[in-house]
Amino acid sequence: MTPRLDGPLKAAGRADYALDRTFPGMAYGYVVLSTIACGEIEAMDVTAAKSTPGVLGVYSPFDPLDLRPTSTPMLGETWVPLRDKEVAYYGQPVGFVVAETFEQARDAAMLVEVSYRERPARTSMEDGLASAEQAPPGRDGSPNPLEILTPGVESFEDALAASPVVVEATYRTAAQNHAAMEPHSAVAVPGEAGLTVYTGNQASTMMAGELAGALGLEPSEVHVLNPFVGGAFGGKGRTSVPAFLAAAAARALGRPVKAALAREQVFTATANRPATVQKMTLGADERGTLIALRHDSWSSTPMDRSFIEPTSHGTSREWYATQNLSISQKMVPLNIPPTTFMRAPGEAPGSFALESAIDELAVALRMDPIELRTRNSSAAPPGKDLQWSSKHLDECFRIGAERFGWARRAPRGHTDGDWLVGVGTATAMFPALRFPATVEVTLRADDTAVVGTGGADPGTGLLTVLSLVGAESLDIEPERVTPLLGDSALPPGGLSGGSTATASTGTAIMIAAAGLIDELLAVASAPGAPFEGQETSYADGRVLGGGRSMTFGEVLRAVGRSSLAAKGSSAPGEELTKHSFSSFGAQFAEVRVHRLTREARVSRMLGVFDAGRIINEKAARSQLMGGMIWGVSAALHEGLEVAAGGRFANADFAGYLLPVHADIPDVEVHFVEYPDTLHNDLGAKGLGEIGAVGMAAAVANAVYNATGIRVRHLPIRIEDLL
Ligand code: MOS
């Protein structure tokens, strides 16, 4: 139960985010966005903008900054602004104005006149379905489409025909925006050795490499810093538009440049979660054993087809032990803002379809939905030989059912005054992954230690994890460990994405600390050192030998050293050939729908999770609560609305609904804690994203239980319940 080390700084406004940095001679940039969804920029008249007081530069595809295509090994190519005259969506960055003050830059940006040759835009997901395209293979390399049939079964249709009970339904989920508290922003400072860029990100090292590529510099010439990140969720995995523009403008002008997206601009000049359409077909025998499971998905994608939401491959590929499986992913290219990874990409919307369909099957079978899920729990992903390393999903459901009072559930809900009350449940799963990470651990002569890695803490609690795992590995109190991150000058940390950071960096810390302790013992017993020639061991922050002990600081002082450091690296390896890995959870929701107004309110929520070892229960609980609340948001609030002309009708916090405190009851989070050392030595499986999985289905299933109305799209609105 360790409070987050950065908590007080953030709460007191003393955490310096990228945008909080100011430097002498700093100029301010403002991004100009397109006002059509499809076409070509014919001309840009920047005369008025340029003659505005204080303006230092107006950049456009006609007068571009020095930016070139760039990519990261992990995420591939990233779109770089101002390189082309084609407009592929409303709100695309088409210009950048830099001035002495923010107000001057913004005023001048309003004076930039853009002439377009407009073409018809395709912005409707429903219209686009007819011309959908095949999507690439699944993220684990699974073919698309993928069919796994029981030997002897000729076709999926045969399996379906042999299923006594069949449920078929189509589900839809809305596109969502990465509305992080900290808008995408950057401050770029040119220097002797290159460029320093302060910008919110999920991996400082990766961002330095990506920026260097865009600027034609060596990665070592770009220094990316951000110890504090105000939310990322996948939306700060790539270098942002303001970071590219501020960096290039700083180099062009030889001055520090600050740039940030305005809140409305965040809705289009970043990247969103795609909208999905998902058709589920389930076939089962009378006892509820799944004979056939088909999941066909359509995801919106921008015209460059850069990202699709892997709903079929993210959920149905692994969740249930069905005898026959058929999944496919298609993409619908639209003139809409870019799409990208967002918290549980694939699983969050995919679980709405799968877990609603499972609920529908339970209704058709007149079976308890938990019993149906337990009956079909997978020991290994279908078609794979590798069993789950550790799976305690049944226990999650058992504990959850008991704590939630599931036994009191009535098949058609109950009433409480004017409220129709229902409960719903759903499975949550998210793969347990790791990425390569390097950490440096340093012992100092003052008996403190430093744990440093280039990774980022986007608000997930990684900073505190570094100190806790560092302290445990060095056998000292966490208060003596200074954690450092968010700096590309530190050893390359993993990516804070894919719920991997704790497992990736934690394992690297353990390796670094073990090596460091060996080195310390070698130093302590070297000729002339306090334990010369003695057998030594290490415990409690002390070197022991010959019946006495010294702290590591005392040893270092005795040999005249101020510090001793060692690096440790970890990466996924042999374990991948032995097991499949996932975190698991059971989600529960109680929903009240008003008899007359039909407003729906979540009145109770419970999630029970099997995420391996929990390193910091307080932060872990917060992560999961946040995810579960996001599930409620997806279920009842959130969704981008495309209006005529491809403009988002609700690109601000007035129209883009998010749950507020009044929408969220007490959230109960419970862990079943089984450290998974088959996955990594730390035993943590990752829990950043799984909270957002399944909860939307649990809410929709509760709405059905309360009202008898099955809503197959998100968000669920009052008009759906009339
Ligand atoms: Mo992850 S989609 O980077 O939270």
TrEMBL record:
Organism field: Amycolatopsis acidicola
Oxidoreductase keyword on record: yes
Protein name in the entry: Xanthine dehydrogenase family protein molybdopterin-binding subunit
Stored InterPro entries: Ald_Oxase/Xan_DH_a/b (IPR000674), Ald_Oxase/Xan_DH_a/b_sf (IPR036856), Ald_Oxase/xanthine_DH-like (IPR016208), AldOxase/xan_DH_MoCoBD1 (IPR008274), AldOxase/xan_DH_MoCoBD2 (IPR046867), AldOxase/xan_DH_Mopterin-bd_sf (IPR037165)
Keywords: Molybdenum, Oxidoreductase
Keyword Lipid metabolism: no
GO terms assigned for molecular function: iron ion binding; oxidoreductase activity
Residue span(s) of domain Aldehyde oxidase/xanthine dehydrogenase a/b hammerhead: 12-120
Domain of life according to the entry: Bacteria
Pfam families noted in UniProt: Ald_Xan_dh_C, MoCoBD_1, MoCoBD_2
Region (Disordered): 122-149
Source taxonomy: Bacteria, Bacillati, Actinomycetota, Actinomycetes, Pseudonocardiales
